[in-house]
Design goal:
By secondary structure, this protein is an alpha+beta fold. It has 17 helices and 21 strands. It has 3 domains: about 375 residues, Beta-Lactamase (2-Layer Sandwich); about 80 residues, Signal transduction histidine kinase, dimerisation/phosphotransfer (DHp) domain (Helix Hairpins, Orthogonal Bundle), CATH 1.10.287; about 160 residues, Heat Shock Protein 90, CATH 3.30.565. The strands form 6 sheets. Strands 2-1-7-6-3 form a 5-stranded antiparallel β-sheet, with helices on both faces. A 5-stranded antiparallel β-sheet has the order 11-10-14-13-12. It has a 5-stranded mixed β-sheet with strand order 16-18-19-21-20, covered by helices on one side. The protein starts with 8 loop residues before the first helix and ends with a helix.
Length: about 650
């Protein structure tokens, strides 16, 4: 088989496919690796900042602990009494005991002039003044306790104990990336101090009690930070987390280890960190070379009671675990990307062959079409573009077929829309016709009612008098009783006619439709006809009020509810619900029964005057209700299913106080 030329479609497709795949895939791989790198170290730095916050709390808690010990000692009555009496022996003994028990480095009591009365250390040394101590000066001035960090000169340490001066003294150890130092030795120390006032029973300041812990070569805080934050986690034999307290740029307390396993005290912080934290006073977070290894580190300044930066608090996480995870993730990602690219190139080659082979079939088909074989159906298995080309002749016929189907569908849709519009016009026409008919019948009913009412009154009065004159055994009494009964019935019909025909303008005011419904249900639920009927209420909350004639709207609800009860003589369910229409323009009230339903031929006439299916009905109740709702600017409709029940829906305009005014 002849190898494809570089100018062939197959070769061109393979080349362009490969370029289109490899270039974006390479860019994606590079960007993905960069995002993974940034994500890993962003999370590492976030964790380090969280660890730094925890370390700060441990540091502050230690200061609070010293302050609590000092304060509790200062308020003891024995100490206060001894200071008043200048009982130096008792004070020295008590302070020494407290200092040893609470593991303090200094515990010194002074009088109100700032003169030392007794020390927990060096009992033989007293009478010197602490006037230059900022903590003592502030307590004597304000009478309030003072806590914080302080740099203590060598001479002050010697006054408390030569051992403290020796503990603080450190010779600098040259450290990579650190700033060159002029001197080679640091003799002052960093101390956590608390100074609290000692007051007599009368509240008068008697003196000051000073307590403190020297941080130089004291590893309690840094080890506690490591224990709380990192829980002793080890990676490849090396502790993963470290913490350090710097006095200036000098490590005075740390659990960072030298190569020989000793603590790396007396080493220096890097120049970059020193500039950021000690000079600029800002927090520094990033990758830092600490003594002999790289860490994800966070540093923040430690300030004294005057706000001056005197040291640095540091926490760090060994960088190597993150690098190992990073490179493992990147290797996995790169492997997946390489495998994906190889797979895509293979697919590109197969796709190029899939495209080139059908072209020969298209060439043969084109020759046959050129010879006049227009009915030939060309079918090939190829990408969409080539299949579209192969089906070009078929597409024309299919397009005509599609257009024909579209026209037929449009015709069907148009017919449906015409039917919907016709139905809407018919419904509107029916409403207009019913309104005109009600108006005409109303005028007629008014005239007829007035003409009949007067004779009926005479007949009823005379027949009632005649009935009173007849004895109980008179054979004519039964006939007269029928006359009275039927006359009363005629009078009720005339009354309903007058109600139907009256043109009284509704006395409208704002009403709560839910309250109207509650009142009506309370009124009817104890009637005999409702004993076997379960009444359910589903009333929406916070409905707007409606502007209506209270009596007329109640009459509408009562008419419909009583009709529903009469439709369920054997019992059933009556549900009354209220809601706000979707546009918020109407309050909708629905009354649903589980009666026999209304046949379609009767539904069209139920609002017509004098149409009734009841044996003794007048056919005016729903007509009157229709007129009342219409006068209120609303509408009433009915939906019914034979055998399931009926639902009457009343819509009344939602109103506001502004509309009423």
């Amino acid at each position: 088989m002849r190898a494809p030329s570089i100018r062939s479609i197959q070769s061109q497709l393979i080349i362009y496919f490969a370029l289109a795949i490899l270039v974006p895939a390479g860019i994606t791989t590079i960007v993905g690796m960069k995002l993974i790198y940034d994500q890993v170290f962003t999370r590492a730095e976030t964790k380090t900042l969280s660890d730094l916050n925890s370390a700060r709390e441990v540091y502050r808690n230690k200061i609070s602990q010293i302050e609590s010990i000092t304060r509790l000692t200062a308020v003891r009555s024995l100490v206060v009494d001894a200071l008043q009496r200048h009982d130096r022996r008792f004070l020295q003994r008590d302070l020494a005991k407290t200092l040893g028990r609470e593991k303090l480095d200094i515990l010194t009591i002074l009088d109100s002039n700032g003169t030392v009365v007794a020390r927990g250390r060096m009992p033989e040394l007293y009478g010197d003044r602490f006037g230059e101590d900022g903590f003592v000066r502030q307590v004597l001035k304000t009478g309030q306790r003072v806590t914080g960090t302080a740099i203590v000169p060598e001479k002050e340490l010697l006054r408390d104990s030569p051992a403290l001066a020796a503990q603080a003294a450190m010779d600098f150890i040259p450290t990579p990336l650190a700033r060159p130092r002029a001197g080679q030795r640091e003799t002052s120390g960093m101390m956590l101090k608390a100074a609290v006032p000692v007051a007599g029973p009368d509240g008068k300041l008697l003196g000051v009690l000073v307590g403190g812990v020297l941080l130089n070569r004291n590893f309690e805080i840094v080890d506690k930070i490591k224990e709380i934050v990192h829980e002793g986690e080890v990676y490849k034999g090396q502790e993963i987390g470290t913490a350090t307290i710097f006095q200036g740029d000098l490590r005075i307390s740390t659990n960072v280890k030298n190569q020989d396993g000793s603590r790396a005290i007396s080493t220096l912080v890097s120049e970059e960190v020193d500039d950021a934290v000690m000079k600029d006073g800002r927090r520094w977070v990033g990758e830092a070379f600490v003594v002999n290894a790289w860490y994800i580190a966070a540093y923040e300044p430690i300030r004294d009671i005057r706000g001056e930066i005197v040291g640095i608090l540091y926490v760090g996480i060994l960088r190597q675990p993150f690098y190992d995870v990073l490179w493992s993730t990147l290797a996995t990602f790169a492997g997946i990307a390489a495998g994906g690219m190889l797979l895509l190139v293979s697919i590109a080659i197969l796709q190029a062959r899939r495209i080139s082979r059908p072209l020969k079939t298209l060439e043969d088909a084109a020759r046959l079409i050129a010879d006049g074989d227009f009915n030939r159906d060309v079918v090939v298995r190829a990408p969409a573009e080539i299949e579209d080309l192969a089906r070009s002749i078929n597409r024309m016929a299919k397009k005509l077929e599609a257009e024909k189907s579209e026209l037929e569908e449009w015709g069907t849709t148009l017919e449906k829309r015409v039917q919907e519009r016709t139905e809407e016009i018919r419904r509107i026409h029916s409403q207009l016709f019913r309104s005109e008919k009600l108006a005409s019948l109303g005028k007629l009913a008014a005239g007829v009612a007035h003409e009949i009412n007067n004779p009926l009154t005479g007949i009823l009065a005379n027949s009632s008098l005649l009935l009173e004159d007849l004895g109980t055994d008179d054979p004519r009494r039964e006939d007269v009783e029928i006359i009275v009964k039927e006359t009363i019935r005629c009078r009720e019909i005339v009354k309903r006619l007058l109600d139907f025909a009256r043109q009284t303008k509704p006395q409208k005011r704002l009403n709560d439709v839910n309250a109207l419904i509650d009142n009506i249900i309370l009124l009817v639920r104890n009637q005999t006809s409702f004993r076997n009927i379960a009444i359910g209420k589903h009333l929406a909350e916070r409905l707007p009020q409606i502007l209506c004639d209270n009596d007329q709207i109640q009459q509408v609800f009562i008419n419909i509810i009583l009709n529903a009860a009469e439709a369920m003589p054997g019992g059933g369910t009556l549900n009354v619900s209220s809601a706000l229409s979707q546009g918020g323009e109407f309050v909708t009230i629905s009354i649903t029964d589980t009666g026999p339903g209304i046949p379609e031929e009767r539904r069209e006439r139920i609002f017509d005057p004098f149409f009734t299916t009841k044996e003794h009905g007048t056919g005016l109740g729903l007509s009157i209700s229709y007129g009342i709702v219409e006068q209120h600017g609303g509408n009433i409709s009915v939906e019914s299913t034979v055998g399931k029940g009926s639902t009457f829906t009343i819509q009344l305009p939602a109103q506001t106080r502004e509309a009423e005014e």
